[in-house]
Structure formats: C-alpha cells, structure tokens
Amino acid sequence: MQILKNKTNIDFIGKRKPAIFISTVINLIILVGIAVWGFNLGVDFAGGTVVEVKFDHSINAADVRKRAESGGLHDVSVQSIGSADENSFLLRLGGVTQLTEESSAKAREAIQALGPVKNVVTDLANGIINFRSEQPMSAEQVRKAVEGSGTGVEEVRELGQAQAGGFDYQVVASGMADRIRSALMSGVEQQDKPDFEMRRTEYVGPQVGKQLRNRAVMALLYAMVAILIYVAFRFDFKFGPGALLAMLHDVVMVAGFYLFSRAEFSLTAIAALLTIVGYSVNDTIVIYDRIREDMGKFKGKPLAEVINIAINDTLVRTILTSGTTALSLVGLLIFGVGEIRDFAWAMLVGILVGTYSSVYIASPLTIWLDERAAAREARQKGGGMQPTTPG
Amino acid sequence: MDRGWYWRLGLVIGVTLLTVWFLIPSYYSMFVLDKSERNNLALLEERLPKWAPPAKYRINLGLDLQGGIHMVMRVDTNTALQKRTERRGDQIARYINDKQLGQVSVDTDPQALQLTLTAQDPATMDAIEKEVLATFTDFVRVGRDGAKLTLAPDEGQVNRFREESVDQAMLVIRRRIDKWGVAEVDVRKLGTDAIQISLPGRNDPEQAKELVGTTAQLEFRMVDDTTDFFGQVIQQNPPPEGSNITLTNTEGFPQLQGPDREALLAYFKDKTPENREVLLECVPSATKKGVCDSYRTFLVEKEVPLTGESLTGADASLSQLNEPEVNVSFDAAGAREFEQLTEKGTGRRMAIVLDDYVQSAPRINERIGGGRARITMGRAGGRPLQEWLSDAQTLALALKAGALPAPVTTGEIRQVGASLGDELIRKGSLAAALGVLCVIAFMAFYYKGAGIIADVALLLNGLLILGGLALFNATLTLPGLAGFVLTLGVAVDANVLINERIREELGHGKTARAAVDQGYDRAFWTIFDAHVTALIAGFILFFTGTGPIRGFATTLIIGLLASLFTSILVTRVMMTYFVHGRNAQTVSV
C-alpha cells in the first residue's frame, strides 16, 4: 500500500512568504497573549494547594463549591475531573498555609492578648509567626490563642530564652489541605465519617515554584543551544539558524496551546515543550539530511529547487512519521487523565506544527541565508559596485 | 550469510536474553509479591530465584503511580543562625566580663546578623577588640565607631553552619521516619537548604508534616545501673520466639539487643519499674547510612533534669591523648543544673537522649562545674581512630540538632492516594498499550513483511526500555509512561525512514538485496542525527529537571538508545535473513 501513488511535485518553497507571514502573526499573538493574560499556572509554578477529592455519592461541582463556601473557603476553584459518574474534583487554592495577611493580623492580636509581647514578625510565605514574649508561656496556651483567632496551628515551637531578654516562640500555621478538609466536612452529619476521600494533595511553596520555573526556562535554553551547536557541527552553519527558528516557532506554538486551551501549565507542560524541541529538530534534520544529499546529486540547480525536490521526496515519510507518532498518542488522548491528557494534546499540536515548520520555516530560512551569502560574495567580487567607506 | 551477520544475530539474541533476565525482579515485585509488600526489598530478595539479578535491579513505581507522599522540607537556617549569633553575643559579653576587660553591652541585629558591643569606657575598647577578635575567631570586624564595635560572623563559618544545620535536620528526619517504620524511605538533600523525602504508601500529608517538621528534643537523663534489670527480665520472661532478643554485654553493662524496635519495646511493656523507662540506642548499619541494624536497651530515670534548651554548643575534637572527645557547653542555668547532677551522680552514667533515642551514655567521672563538659569517647575495641572520630562528630551533630535547632518548614508536599495510584497505573498502561497496538497494526498493514519486522523490533524496543529502567533502578512515573509511548512513536520513525528508502531504491530498479543494503546505509546517518538531537534534549532534561521530569527524561534517554539499537541492528538482521539468506528476489515492503 502507498499513501501517494505518484511522486509529488508540490511547490512548497514558492508559498514560503505567505506561510512565514501567517506563522509570524500567530507567534506574535501568542507571545503578546502570554505577556498579557499569562498561562494558567499550576501549583508547580504559582505555588498553592491542589486537592483531588472523590465523593462516594453523586454530586456536582456547584454543590462542592457551595459546601466549601459554607465551610468558610471563598477563593477556592472547583473543577470536575474524569467522567461525571466518577464524582472527582480538583480543588485549588492560592494559599499554601492558613496564614494570610488578614488571619495573621488576628493571630497577632490574640498573641498580644496573652501578655506583654514584643517583636511579632510574620512570615507569610512560610506560614510562620515569630514573637518574643517577656514572660514564659506554654506552647498549649499559644496554640489555643492562635487557633481561637481562626488559624489552624501545626506546631508551636519554644525557641528558648533570648539573650536580649524575653522568650522566643514560633508558631507554624497548618496547611491548606487541612482547611479544605474541614471546610468540606461542614454539614457532614457524622464527623468521623466523611463522604469523600482526599485522593491527592499537592502543595508547593512560592519559593519552590519560582525555583522550578527558573530551572525549567534554563533547561529549555540549554537544550536549544546544545542542539544548535550539534546542527552547526554536523551540517553547515547555514542550516543552524533555520533549525533553531523552527524549534522556537514550535515551542511558541505549543505554548500557545497551553495559553488558549487554559490547560494547566505545570512541570508536565515543560516536559511537553522540551519533547517538542526534540521532535521538531528531529523532523527538521531528516529533511536537512535529504537536502544535503540532493545538493550533491543536483549540482548547479538553485538551492530553492533542490529543497523543493528534497521536501517532496521525503513527503511520504514526513506524513507517515507524524501519523504514527500521533497514532501512538491515541491511547493517551482517550485514557489519559488531567495533565497527561493535556500533555497528549500538546504533543499532537507539536507534531503538526513541527512537521509544518520543518517545511515552511527551517528550509526557507536556509535559502534566505544562502541568498544573502551569495549576494555578499557577489558584492565582494564586484568590488566597485559599492562605495567602500574609508577606514 | 556472512560471519558479520552471525555476530550481529548473536548480539541481538544476547541483549534480548539479558533484558528479559533483568526484568525478573521487576516481574516478581509487581506480580508475584503482595501489593503491600511491593517495596519490601528484603522479602523480594528472598523470593527471587537464585539465578535472578539482585532485588535492587527493579523498576520502582513513582509515588504518583503507587501512592505515597513526596515532600520537600526547607531548613530555616536563618532563624538558627540568628539564635546562634545571639548566643555567641552572650558568650562574648561573659568572656569580657570574666577577663575583666571592661563593661560592655551587647546588641544583636538579627536581620543583619550583626553584634554591636558598646563599651562604657571608650578607652577599654581597643583592648576588648583585640582580645575578642583573637578569641572568637568565627567573627570578623564590620566597623568600629569609637566605643562601638560591630561584629559579624565570618562568611565561611556562616556557610559551614548552614550546611551543618541541614545535616542535623536530615539526621533528625531520618530517625523520626525510622521510628514510624516506613520501608524504602528516601531522604536526600535538595539544593543547599532543602531536604527531599519520599514515603511510598503513606497517605496522610498532615501527619507526615507533623512527624518530620517538629524540632528535635534533646534530654539528659540518668541511667539506672543499680540493678541487673535486663538480666532478670530475660530470665523471668523469655522473649517470644523469633524476636531475636538477646542479652549482651557492652563495657560491663548488661543490655538486651534486638533487630526489631517495635518488638523490643513491646517486650518491656508492663515490665518496667515505676519512674523508669526503657530507651533504645541505634546500632547503625555498616553499609547503609541512616539505618539501624539493631537496637540496644537502656534503663533510664523518667525524670528529665536537663534539656537541650540549656545547651549552647557541641564540638568534636581530638584530646591531647589523641582520643576523640565531644566538648559541650551550657548556659548559666544549665551549668548550675549540670554541676549538681554530676556531683550527685559521680560514677553513674548519664544518657544523652535525642528524640527518645539514646545517643551516648558517658560515665560521669567527677563533678563538672563551669558549664563545660567533655565526653571522652575512649578507644576500646581496637577500632580505627577515624571511626571513633566520626562517632564523636555524629554525637556532636546530634547534640547540636537538639540544642540549636534549625526549624524546618514545608516547601512542597505531593500526596497521591493508593487507590488513585492504582487507577493511574491501569489507565496509563491501557493508554500505552492502545497507542502501541495502533502503531503495530498500521505498520503491518502499510509495509506488510517489512512492517511486521518493524513491529517485532518495536516490541523488543518496549522490552529494552523496561529492562533499561530496571538496570538503572529507575522510577517509572506517569509522565514516564507518556515518554514510553512517545519513544515508541519515534522508534517507528526510524523504520519508516528505512522502509521508504528501500521502496525508493526498488523504484529505481535495484535488486532486492541492493535496495535493502542501500536503504539501511543511506538512512543510517539520518537516523543517527535525529536520535542524537533528541538525546541532547533528553540529557538536558535529565540534568536540569527534578521529580517527574527526571522520570520522563530517563525513559526518553533509555528509549532513544533502545530505538537506535533496534532500528539499526535488529531490523537489519531480520531483513538480511529474509532477503539475503533466502535469496529472495523481492522484498515485502
């Protein structure tokens, strides 16, 4: 069996200008979109708390939200996952610990009511209140006071007597997962028998998120540079920029998928972007390889024509490879859950644009660089054509 | 068939058999052992046939696939450093007072980590500065303004202290988790100030946080050696069979020793006299860091006369007699208490207890005043000096962990319930299987004979990836499963390239043999380049990524190497057999 019965002779290169124009416009829209709206950052990057809850009876997202709200959680986002009869929901909260500006002010008041206290310092990012009391207190006393002000307490640490006089204490607020649980428990008749199961809890502090994001961006840059070096080394320099630009194009496009689908941008999304970098350059290189081979075969023909031949020659392979890779994603698209399904969709988008960019972005840029080099050579040979600036 | 072909065939068969062999421990841990025992390496080792590879060569399921807790704890070295600076300021003031250098007041700036000494008489400041800088070498001068001298901890000291704080926190966390009895925990340093903990099979994140997050408790308690308690207990109530509890004698003191912490403690329940408690000492494993081989018992008084709160420092050093020793110092109140304690208890042993574990039980030789004590480790048993010194360092670290705690906070928690983990495995494998089946069906349909050869290579490829994961004891995560599917897709690309080339060559009128050879030769460099570039992306992912990303990268790298092997070598061996070996005139492609 064959996909294309006869050898094709499609003029890909002739259509490069409108293609590049459309690609540039879409890329710019995506970049502007990222700058303006930003991604739907997952907890990995934004920090915060995500809890996956599965109820043992039929319930919809609106009801779950109502329950959370009646339990005192107002800024929670509720998202149903999986099929409707699974009764599974993702609850997302911005905060990592129960300490917010508001609750820490209340907690501070409660601590100050216990006795003469100086130096109350709150560390919202880590959910910690540090304070120095003029007289010793018991940990239980402090815990009761803070919990009475509405903040869950994980631990009260007695840091001991301070050199400058006074006793140091540290109150660690408990996490949001606890809060979500108690909010959902409000209205449950038997307090020891919840009608739901907390299947997954993810909780990432804001510092971790920042670190992860920086590392991920660095990884992307390193990968691109390393691949560029390899291409420049294995092929000619004029192939390098094309491969790099095609790669950037594909990464932006897949980022665009995450931008417009509002799929959660998490570490898995970074993995998808990096995989696309690999796939994109893989595809580009197969075509470059053929161009290089055909350049030897058709000496004398203009590069644009050679590239057209090469692309047409490899067209069947290109379609088949994209097709089979896409085929291998079918299972993930059907059975994947949450992030993995998003990953599969992102890969699908990446495969399509990766194929397109090897043809319409990488190859034309090579022609352009070649033409420029030829023009420069002509200029230098012509000598008198251009006035030379006096040194 | 030339000789090269037989070599290659041998290589392919050899690699295949080796891969299957390497997958045996994974098969046993996944399908033969009970689900709850999946992480029990010792049991796995026992069940494995003798000829199988060691149990450690098996594929781990990531916490996202088997359920469990992954946490990152941040060590708050800043708070610890502030406390330490304050304590040192206290010591400096005392020192100046003791040496009668003058009257100073000490102010600490906890944010900037600076100490400011203000002399009542500015004339004394020069002498004070000289003396203080010479004695407290961990401080450097920041500035001097007449009677005011500002000091800050030396940069190197600060860094060493931060590092030590993280080590201390790790020590405590390991112990606590050990106490919890979780098999297969993984505790490791992450970056400069964080500790990463994996607890497979656990699913209460708040409980876990509480367990590892609380600060360590250090206590000094008197050991009761007045009766032969352990000898009598074991005589009157023989321990249950199989518990391996035995009576041992360490430096003249009878003790019970057993490999199981729970069993030991259970054995003493209701047998301990009033006001006494049995505490355990960990006998560290010689091979695995942070794991106890067995436990030894101590009978201690229930009363806690002195806690780590009073401790101001602990350091290990070598004495003049070349014996490792640990120097500890107490604050004023602690020093008084310690003096009384040592006076009353001369000749007895004092247990240093951290988090309910006896760290050491030195014998009190004399009354110790002045708040500075020396614990001499001795050199019994002919162990090398280095070992004793490292013991002393561990004790000093443990003392400091209780005395100068660096609070830990939770940086990240990811918990997946076991039922969700099971569901993800099921769905994940179903997804992978469906993807692979689609590709297999398509290849056979489109390329016929060559397609079936590619399919065989594809299946072998999958097997090789699993074998590779087992060999590197890698962790299979959900993104890893996605990576698995994707590499299979890319592996097919190599076969498509080859088969398309063969068709092309056949189209040019070449014979079957020539077309196959040309197809492989021409496609080789393309396949090579394509794989190497993808490998570059994979390695960068591996070295810069953490957690699930790393799992994905591992799978991708192993997959690409496997794909290189199957597409270039395996399919060619088969193709050559069908075309050259059978002398065929046509190729089914």
Task: Write a structural description.
The complex is a heterodimer of chains A (391) and B (589). Chain A has 391 residues and is of the alpha+beta class. Chain A is built from 13 helices and ten strands. Chain A has helices spanning 16-36, 43-46, 61-70, 101-112, 139-148, 176-185, 206-234, 240-261, 267-297, 303-313, 315-328, 330-335, 338-382, and strands at 40-41, 48-55, 77-81, 88-93, 117-123, 128-133, 153-161, 167-173, 196-204, 264-265. In chain A, strand 5 and strand 6 form a beta hairpin. Chain A is elongated and about 90 Å long. Chain A starts with 15 loop residues before the first helix and ends in a 9-residue tail after the last helix. Residues 384-391 of chain A have low confidence and may be disordered. In chain B, the strands form six sheets. In chain B, strands 7-8-2-20 form a four-stranded antiparallel sheet. A four-stranded antiparallel sheet of chain B has the order 3-4-6-5. In chain B, strands 14-9-17-18 form a four-stranded antiparallel sheet. Chains A and B meet through strand 7, strand 8, strand 9, helix 7 and helix 9 of A and helix 5, strand 3, helix 8, strand 20 and helix 13 of B. Strand 9 of chain A pairs antiparallel with strand 20 (408-416) of chain B.
Strand order of the largest sheet of chain A: 3-4-2-9
Tell how many strands the DSSP assignment of chain B holds: 21
**Low-pLDDT segments of chain B:** none
User: Helix count of chain A, per DSSP?
Assistant: 13
The share of residues in helices of chain B is 40-55%
Distance between the termini of chain A: 67 Å
Overall mean pLDDT score of chain B?
A: 83
Keywords:
heterodimer, A: alpha+beta, four-stranded antiparallel β-sheet, 10 strands, B: 589 residues, alpha+beta, 16 helices
Short description:
The complex is a heterodimer of chains A (391) and B (589). In chain A, 58% of the residues lie in helices and 16% in strands. Chain A has 391 residues and is an alpha+beta fold.
